[in-house]
Each structure stands twice: as C-alpha cells, then as structure tokens.
Amino acid sequence: MLSFILRRLLVAIPTIILISIFVFALQKLLPGDPVLAMAGEERDPETLAFLREKYGLNDPIPVQYFRWVGNALTGDLGISLRSNQPVLELIGQKLPVTIQLATMAMIFAIAIGIPAGILSAIKKGTAIDYVANVVALSGLSIPNFWLGIMLILLVSVKWQLLPASGYVPFDEDPLRSIQVMIMPAFVLGTALAATLMRHTRSAMLTVLTSDYVRTARAKGLNERRVILKHAFRNALTPIVTLSALLFGELIAGAVLTEQIFTVPGFGKLVVDAVFNRDYAVVQGIVLVTAVGFIAMNLLADVAYVLLNPRLRKQ
Amino acid sequence: MTLSRMTLAAALLGATTLGAQAQDLRIALQSDADVLDPDQSRTFVGRIVYASLCDKLVDITPDLEIIPQLATDWEWSDDNTSITFTLREGVTFHDGTPLNADAVARNIERSQTLEESRRKSELTSVTGTEVLGEYEIRFDLSTPDATLLAQLADRSGMMMSPDAFDAAGADFGLAPVCSGPFAFEERIAQDRITLTRFDDYWNADAINFDSVTFLPIPDTTVRLANLQSGDIDILERLAATDLEQARGDDGIAIESAVSLGYQGLTFNLDNGDRGDNPWGNDPRLRRALSLAIGRDIINQVVFNGAFAAGNQPFPPNSPWYDADRPVPERDVERARALLEEAGFGDGITLEVQVPNTTVPLQLMQVVQSMASEAGINIEITSKEFATLLEDQSAGDFIASQIGWSGRVDPDGNIHQFMVTDGGLNDAGYSNPEVDQLLNDARTTTDQAERKALYDQAQDILSADQPIVYLYHQNWIWALDASIEGFTPYPDGMIRLEGVTTSED
User: Chain B: residue nearest A158 by CA?
Assistant: First the structure.
C-alpha cells in the first residue's frame, strides 16, 4: 500500500511541473500589461517602470519562471500585484472558503444524487425513474448563474430566508456560516447531483442483473438487504472514482458560483486575478489546485483499494 | 405565509437577528479596493474606504468648494508660490501619534519620494515644506499651482501616521494608520474591510456608528438583492437599469449626484503609425460623427434617462462648463454635409474599440445605429479592458470608447489628456495654443480668470474634437430607508459625518 502511494506521488511531480510551465507560458501570451492594468487611471511612466523592475517583469520569461519555481520551493509564492498581500496568505484565506463550499456542495450532490440513482435503478421503467431522469437532466441543463440569481431573488429578496451573498467564517459563527453557504452550495451541488445520479443508476443496473444478486435474492434475503448490502456496495467503486473526478468540476463550478454569490473563495480570487493580470496569484492558485486535484485522485485510488479487497492483494 | 414556512424562516433567521450588531454600517462596493496606502492606491473604491479611514488636509463641499478638515485655515503668498496651512490642534492618529506640522511634512515627503508612490505627479509643483510652528506649515512651490488644494482634498492630502509608515515602509497598506473617524480593523481580500470607531476622533460627535464594513459585491443585481434582503445598508453605483425596481421598494431610498467624470470616444490623431488615418487627420469627420449622435437618445435608451448628456470634459452642471457651447442637437443633415466636404460623401467606416462589458457595448450599438444614418459605418471591436488599455496607450487603435472618473479641479479632467505629451494624451493631440491656455490656467488662483482660459481652450477643442464627449455618469446610491443624513457628493465618496440610522 505504502509503495503504491509513493509511486503515485512520484508520478505527480512531473505533472505539476508541466502544469506550472503551461500556465506560466499561457499567462505571458495574454495581451495586456499587468502594470498598466494595475495602474488604471494613474499611469506615471516613471512609477510604471519602477514597478516593472520591482516585480521582475523586464526579465526574460524563463528567468521569471525559474525565479518563481525557486521561491515556490522555499514556500514563497510571491506577492499580489494588486493588494500587495503575500499570495500564500491570500490562498490561506480563500482555501477554507472554497473547501467549505465544495464540501457542502458535495453533501448536496451525494444526498440527492445517490438515493435518486438507486431509486430510479430499482424502479427502472416506472414513473419514478422517468421523473428522476427528467429532474437530473434539468439539473445538468439549467445554467448555474440563472439558478443562482433566481434563488437570490426568491429566497433572499422575496422570502427573506437566507442572506443573499457573502461569507462568514465557520469558526466565527457556524450557524450563520452554513446559512450563507446553503444557496451557493445547492447551486453548485445540483449539477453534480445530476451526474452522480446518472452514474449511480447505470452502475446499479449493471450490478442488479448480475448473478450474485440473483443468488442473494434466491437465498431469500429481503430486498433492502439485497440492494444496500450486496448491490450498492459493489456499485460504489465507479461512483467513488467519479466523485474524485468531479472534484475538478467542483472547482471549475466554484469559479462561476463564487462570482454570483460573491463568495470570497478560490474561484473568485482566480477570476479577479486573471482580469487584473495578477500573475503571481494566478500561478499560485493553479499550483495549489493542481496539487489538490492530484491528492483527491490519490485518495480516490486508496479508497478504491479499500473498497475492493481483490485489489489489496496485488 | 404558511405556518411551516414561518417556522422555517424563524429557525433560519434566529441566529441572524441575535448575532447582528445594530450599529455596524454595511456598505457594498462595486469592486474590491486595491492596496490601502493612500500614496500607492489607485482605485475609486479605495477612496470610498479612505473617506472613513483617512482625513485630509482639506475637504470639499457638494458644490466643490474647498473647506477645512485637518487644516483649519490656509493662505497663499502674494505671488502664489507658497501656501501656509494652520493645522487643527489636538488631532491624533489611530496609533496615538499627534498630528502636527512635522507629521504633515513627513507625509508630503513620503508622497514625493516613496518609489511606489502614485502621488508624485499630483505634487510636482511642491519643492519643499517648512515647519513654522507646532501647527503651522508652509508649502513652497516651483510655480503657482491652482490645482494643489484640490489634490490635498484627495489622496495627496491624506495624513498617515509617520511612525507607522516609517516602520511598515511600502507595506503600510496591509495595516493603515490614519486619523479619520474610523480605524482599520481587518481586511479579507475580496470579502470585506472592517473599520472600527476611533473614539479620539476630533469630530467624534458627528459619527454615529461603532463600525463600518465595506463589502465588494461586483454584480449589480446581487448588490441590490443584498440591500433588499437587509444584509447591507448602503450600496454605491446602482445600475441605471435597476432604478425603477429600487424606487418601487418602500424599504429603499435613492440618492444621486452627477459625477465629475465623463465617457467619450478618444481618436488616434498622432499616437504612432495608426494615427495616420482619415479619422485622425481630418477634424471634419470627427465633428460629423459628433453631430450624428443624439446624446439625449443615448441617455434615454441606455441609461433610462438617469445620467447627463455631455459634450465637454466637465458636466453641464459644473461651474467650469462652457455654457456658450451647449450639448448639440442631433443633426444628421449637417453630419452628411461635413462628410461630403471631407470627400466621404459615399460613406466611411470607423473602427471603434470598446470594453467587452454590457454597458459600453450597448452604448456603442446605439451610437452605431445613429451614425449609420449619416453614412458612418461603425465596426465595433470589443476587447477585455486590460487589453484595450494597453492598445490605447500604445496607439494601436483608431477610436476607443473610454472614460475618466473625474477630478475636483478642472485641470484634472483636461490637462493631461490635451497638452502635448500629456501623461494620458493617448490621442497624441498637440496644439501649442491649447498647451499655453491649459498651462496658464494652472497658474492663476482666480476662478473667473481660469474659467475664461478653459473656455478659450474649449473653443479650439470643440473644433478639433480629439475626444468626442458623450455623457456624464451619475453616482447613484441606494440606501436602506432607515439611513438618514446621507449627503450625495459629485466625487462619489460616502462621507459618514452626520449619517444615522433610525433602527436601534
């Protein structure tokens, strides 16, 4: 098991290096001068020249890249051109926000998607199955921004049930923190729930027609036991893999959701940073996201092994 | 409302009501402020935060008159080459350091010498300061500078604790220490900036809140939704298209003021090779376009009539507006005649670069359809803002739709755009006569004399039209109806002196 994890970690290193080079190069290809973008209305040429020098923007791109890598290895991700805050500090502020959003969204997705998938698999061909499929399809097709704005107008403005937007740290006021996050997490969670539901349904259908399920039924086990203990356990493996892959979708979805609900998380940070040409921030976020994505997939593989005893022996 | 829904509402809202602090004022901003160091800062929203955080030597009235703030009195020397300020006594910074002439001298020195400072150009006329007493200081100038007081009514005149900036250097903005009504408490980027009441403030009686929280909420719909749901108390820059909805809500009050800035079309006259084009070479074409545009139509169609039509760098209600040149009526016939005269009777194409956001695109589409009736075919190139700015600055454009946020002193709206090699003269415009007039207007402190000089410059500029001015934005604030005593200012700032809430 340990050597398996170590091997996977070694494979991750070149992946991260490639991603960082790719993003660095892409950013430099973007039109728009970061110092000019930052200067806005105050474009004193002398100050602009000084800032270009200060942030090392005059150096050749490979030099800039290796300086960034060197600093990153010592834990220094540079400072934001816009707010002068260290990038690491910014990420430290934003990461818990997006983790909370992603976790709550995942809870919504699992709580809705998996039971709905199981239900529609065992009730295949009935009205319940069709309704579940229509709902899932809607969940996938309704754009996030539309659903978000509608929820704000309905739940916050009309009914005044939940705060319209913003963020409260969990350790400051847990209840309020969850209240504020319910709508964005729901919006983010619905699209994922739909994907999860469809996959759960097809995995369950495959398993339900297999021999051991027929055997289990033949033994006279009650249906609940057959479905949850025998069928669902085995259908779980592809679902876990899918959940890990959905993490990427979750982060991408968070970019949009955080914009709508003004959640000060990772997604909002990266969008604002791209528009402001705040290179150090973009680079830092991409690095952390890539590491996070790889870690999630590693965790999924470990869970996979734990769930499937046959893999443990190898 | 059914019983179950009420129960749900009560359960969800329970903690909200209990946890809320009655005397915290929550203000929604359109974007996040940049670094909170008045010397380095450059955003409009940053200045809104400073209005509560950092006092200035002088302030303005809603009519743009200069009034005392940290300086109680000032006097120009006879030849206008020096100005002596008398400072308010008993003022301290948030860290307890006293504000005196020495502190002011160190502040001006920092604004002029800190390498990251954005204030250098605003203070170029100041050659040095002389501390004359504990509360008296003289600024010596290289030439008479009529714009100086207005600069000192903004970021150049904001006083920071010298001990704090000596210790923090260029990182002062991470924990700013000033002398305003509220002191810096905390900042979470893109989420909030929290300031708490400064008990030793010199005008503490006028301040009625224990804290003020600034929340960046970029989406206008969401900003308004937050006000309607009671999550915020004041929002700045309500979208003109949301005015009707906001007016229909009894819980919301609206305040507005014509801004100091403008929006228009900047032409490339002589900024690089691309300046050599018919539009850059022949002022008749630019005048024709100006005549083809109905400015009131723009205001009605794009902004629901909430803004002000304009044709000069100053809005029509400004004391600096040249009333002899009112906003022209749309005249398609004359526009066509001018095109004919310039040799383009069969029509001509104009490529305009526009920021790729809703309002500028709508604006240009309206302009496009009006121009087409005069035989001008506008091709819209929409660009992301940072790219547009770079292309404009580098001269890679024919015409560019861009604006200016405006300054208190008229010089700030015209000088650097129109004088030869001016810092923001992206048009590459150059006219020695205009240079002379605009430079002269800087050196006299007599308002009538200055006005005459600007009017003369306007005579030339309205013939040349390197910038075709279109409209002046209105600052529109939406407030919770319980907020009282709010005064709209044309600089768009939110000043909290005298503002109260009728909620407990």
Answer: B229
Length of chain A: 314
Burial classification of residue B73, based on how many CB atoms lie within 10 Å of its CB (0-12 exposed, 13-18 middle, 19 or more buried): exposed
Q: Which of B357, B364, B386 is nearest to B239 (CA)?
A: B357
Residues in chain A with CB shorter than 8 Å from the CB of B230 are 160
pLDDT one-digit tens code per residue, A93-147: 888 899 899 999 999 999 999 999 999 998 988 998 998 888 888 888 888 888 9
Q: Count CB neighbours of A177 within 10 A.
A: 17
Provide the 8-state DSSP code for A74: T
Q: What angle do CA A15, A19, A21 make, to 5 degrees?
A: 120
Mutate to test the interface with A, among B6, B12, B47, B217 (most CBs of A within 10 A): B12
DSSP H helices in B31-180: 44-53, 101-113, 148-152, 162-168
* Residues in B touching A42 (Cβ below 8 Å): 42, 118, 121
d(CA B20, CA B18): 6
pTM: 0.86
CB B260 within 8 Å of CB B413? yes
The Cα–Cα gap between A35 and B371 comes to 35
Residue A165 contacts B, CB cutoff 8 Å: yes
When CB atoms are compared, the residue of B35, B190, B230 closest to A264 is B190
| Contact indicator for B122, B208 with CB cutoff of 8 Å | no
The alpha-carbon gap from B317 to the nearest alpha carbon of chain A, in Å, equals 24
* Per-residue pLDDT, A312: 65
DSSP 3-state assignment of B42?
coil
Between CA A148 and CA A155, with CA A151 as vertex, the angle to 5 degrees is 150
Looking up tokens 């528009």 gives: A275
For the residues B39-45, what does the mean pLDDT come to? 90
**Using one digit for the tens of pLDDT, what is the confidence trace for A195-254?**
899 899 999 999 888 888 888 888 888 888 888 888 888 888 888 878 777 877 887 788
Q: Is A209 on the interface with B (CB under 8 A)?
A: no
Which residues lie closer than 8 Å to A71 by C-beta, 6 or more apart? A77, A78
Two structure tokens written together for B356: 């790729």
Q: What are the strands, taking DSSP E only, across B77-123?
A: 82-87
The whole-number average pLDDT for the span B32-40 is: 93
- Domains of chain B and CATH, by start: 5-30+181-258+479-501 (3.40.190.10), 58-167 (3.90.76.10), 262-472 (3.10.105.10)
Tokens of B137: 């200081």
Contacting A residues, span 168-197, partner chain B, CB-CB under 8 Å: 173, 175-176, 179
Contact assessment for residue B67 and residue B53, using Cβ atoms and an 8 Å cutoff: no
DSSP code string of B251-272: TEEEEEEE-S-EEEEEE-SSSS
By the CB < 8 Å criterion, does A152 face chain B? yes
Q: Does A274 touch chain B (CB under 8 A)?
A: no
Q: What would the two tokens of residue B162 be?
A: 């010298």
Does residue B503 have a pLDDT over 80?
no
Q: DSSP states of B458-486 as a string?
A: HHHHHHH-SEEEEEEPEEEEEEETTEE--
Question: What is the complex's ipTM, to 2 decimals?
Answer: 0.80
User: Could you tell me which of A270, A177, A272, A153 has the C-alpha nearest to residue B222?
Assistant: A153
Q: Which residues of B touch A84 (CB under 8 A)?
A: 35, 37, 40, 170-171, 173-174
Name the closest residue on chain A to residue B1, using Cα atoms. A159
For chain A, list the domains and their CATH numbers.
2-73 (no CATH), 96-312 (1.10.3720.10)
> A25: helix, coil or strand?
helix
Structure tokens at B270: 């002589």
From chain A, pick out residues whose CB is under 8 angstroms from the CB of B13: 160-161
Q: Tokens representing B69?
A: 């703030």
Amino acid at A51: L
